[in-house]
Write a structure and sequence with these properties.
about 160 residues, Cd81 Antigen, Extracellular Domain, Chain: A, 7 helices, glycoprotein
Length: about 160
């Protein structure tokens, strides 16, 4: 049991170190994937389009760097900026969303990349604290399992 807990502890420790060391690559990868999701965005209910819509609605953002990122997409030429960017769903018409100057007043202008990364970074202290707490419990479990094993081998209980 102590060896199993030690193995889990080491896996979590390695994952944390790798995440910390490669955090910049993770950000770059996220930005490129968000750009791809915008480029391939369509009105069908695929996972990437739903994820983009969810991020934009939840964080009140639009595009990767800003709302004008949509201008470079095929979706913009057909339907304009998506409804998920609208500040108020009642006040967004398709004509407004096809014109960037009109859309600027009706959609969120901030990009999602900065908001997602800043939200993740602000929550990292909470994640680190919880991870540290779990690691402490794992270490206590490892120590107690080793103590129990030592106690059992020292007393040589008789098998019944």
């Amino acid at each position: 049991y102590a060896m199993l807990l030690s193995l889990i502890f080491l896996i979590v420790l390695v994952a944390a170190v790798v995440g910390f060391v490669f955090r910049h690559e993770i950000k770059t990868n996220f930005e490129s994937n968000l750009n791809l999701a915008l480029r391939d965005y369509n009105v069908t209910a695929d996972r990437h389009s739903e994820a983009v819509d969810t991020i934009q609605r939840t964080l009140h953002c639009c595009g990767v760097q800003n709302y004008s990122d949509w201008e470079k997409t095929e979706y913009f030429t057909q339907k304009g900026i998506p409804q998920s960017c609208c500040k108020s769903q009642d006040d967004c018409s398709e004509d407004d969303l096809k014109d960037l100057s009109k859309a600027k007043l009706k959609v969120f202008v901030d990009g999602c990349f900065f908001l997602v990364t800043s939200t993740m970074e602000s929550k990292m202290s909470v994640v680190a604290g919880i991870s540290f707490g779990i690691a402490c419990f794992q270490l206590v479990g490892i120590i107690l399992a080793c103590c129990l094993s030592q106690y059992i081998t020292n007393n040589q209980y008789e098998m019944v």
